[in-house]
Amino acid sequence: AEMRVAVVGAGVSGLTATKCCLDEGLEPTCFEQSQDIGGLWRYTEDIQASRPSLYPSVISNTSKEMSAFSDFPYPEDFPVFLPHGRLLHYLRRYAERFGLREHIRLGTTVVSIRKHPDFASTGRWNVVTEAEGKQTSHVFDAVMVCSGNFSEPSLPLHCFPGIERFRGQYFHSQQYKHPDVFQGKRVLVVGMGNSGVDIAVEASRVAAKVMISTTRGALLLGRVFEHGYPWDMVYNTRLMSLIRNNLPGPLSRGWINYMVNQRFNHENYGLQPEKSCLVREPVLNDDLPSYILTGRITIKPGLKEFKDNSVVFHNCPEEEPIDIVVFCTGYDVSFPFLEESVVKVENKHASLYKYVFPTHLQKPTLAVLGLIKPLGGIMPVIEMQARWVTRVFKGRGANVSPPVYQNAAQILKTEWLAYMDTLASFIGAKPSVLGLLCRDPWLALTIFFGPCSPYQYRLGGPGRWEGARQAILTQWDRVLKPTRTRVPAGSSSSFPSLLTILGFLLLLAAVIFGF
């Protein structure tokens, strides 16, 4: 009999988990409590408890080529960075292309997941679901938790003295939908993550005044990077990763800091983070520097206390009048359907081997997908996790027994490409640049010097895709197609840039060996 797998959620994680189960010959059943697929990327005006929520202006922070599923490129006419509607359209096409909908039960909530009495020998799970007020019990051989981590807002009001006497309005960023609420108001945004900066930028177009309060600062990247190319297609290459991971720690951090400050000096804009925070996930926004320059947004230090109609910041004695406060303080990791002993959550992070498997279970038959914050596209990472997990379920993956605890600092330091390569090596899908150099030198050079797009992990091994080579060699064509709209778009060969890099390396080698 086929191994039965319960998949919790039909967002990005749930869809790719279902697809990977089918690829491995497993029998998935995907439970989604809403009436449609898409998870976080499905926009609604309603704000529901324990459900992800986004605002209409949300745009992806990673480019389409670096955030595609590895055997399903985005259409070439899609913009390079995707509005949420386009991304949802892509997910629906993905579900249709691979026949996923027949395995998804919409309007079905997972109430509880408990170990079956024979778990020690079989690894099975009892799963209770609810649909239309009726509960049903199931037994599954394995479980993939794909419920995401943007459902439980973290709002630690006890950390903000005086908030109980503040007479203005305040809310968590999860409740934000439109900037109209800020019309003519004095607005304070607490926290400097991606949502915080996006909301501050939108608010500044209609508000009387906007301030961002940040204790630690942040490194700021723009979607538009060197020479106008997408940031992640320049940053996440095998050459760049090799340099970053082989330089001594201080040199590597200093180099990254230097690169980021080429666009503008963070210290001059009040954004330079503390040294200990250089490993934090950078913020992606193209507008903030110009909005600071034009006075639309002011950067402030951490909050000291609230007054009746104002706030006081650390190291700033004067009070600042405020009408509305938006707390962009992140989300808590929560699995209400699991027993606490199954997945231990501490300081907003779960104890998981390779950020996927609970470290103490007798059988590796439960996996959590998507609880990682790499500096790169999350969708390919989740897909790689799912490919590894389904092979582990089948008894063909790498050993998952080492009890490794990954804490918050380790998670934020995770290198996107290194993590992808690690999981790919577990299933035999990591591309061999040296091997390709003999058989297909042009492809090998493109893989090493060019963007590490997800298609690289379909060149060989299980799940090999015949279209992977062509997808890699035409990735720049799909990037430039939606932007070269005034003149015909020609081929975007990377040959000149490769020659430049090769020449630089040869010169560097000559200098080193010359000395």
UniProtKB/TrEMBL annotation:
Its cofactor is FAD. It is found in: Endoplasmic reticulum membrane. InterPro entries: FAD/NAD-bd_sf, Flavin_mOase, Flavin_mOase-like, Flavin_mOase_1, FMO-like. It is an enzyme of class 1 (oxidoreductase). The keyword Chaperone does not apply. The chain crosses the membrane at residues 495-514. It comes from the Eukaryota. It catalyses: hypotaurine + NADH + O2 + H(+) = taurine + NAD(+) + H2O; hypotaurine + NADPH + O2 + H(+) = taurine + NADP(+) + H2O; N,N-dimethylaniline + NADPH + O2 + H(+) = N,N-dimethylaniline N-oxide + NADP(+) + H2O; trimethylamine + NADPH + O2 = trimethylamine N-oxide + NADP(+) + H2O. Its main location: endoplasmic reticulum. Keywords: Endoplasmic reticulum, FAD, Flavoprotein, Membrane, Monooxygenase, NADP, Oxidoreductase, Transmembrane, Transmembrane helix. GO terms for cellular component: endoplasmic reticulum membrane. Its EC number is 1.14.13.148, 1.14.13.8. Gene3D superfamilies: FAD/NAD(P)-binding domain (3.50.50.60). It holds the Pfam family FMO-like. It is a single-pass membrane protein. GO terms for molecular function: flavin adenine dinucleotide binding; N,N-dimethylaniline monooxygenase activity; NADP binding; trimethylamine monooxygenase activity. The keyword Zinc-finger does not apply. Belongs to the FMO family. Broad spectrum monooxygenase that catalyzes the oxygenation of a wide variety of nitrogen- and sulfur-containing compounds including xenobiotics. Catalyzes the S-oxygenation of hypotaurine to produce taurine, an organic osmolyte involved in cell volume regulation as well as a variety of cytoprotective and developmental processes. This is Flavin-containing monooxygenase 1. It comes from Climacteris rufus. The lineage of its organism: Eukaryota, Metazoa, Chordata, Craniata, Vertebrata. The gene is Fmo1.
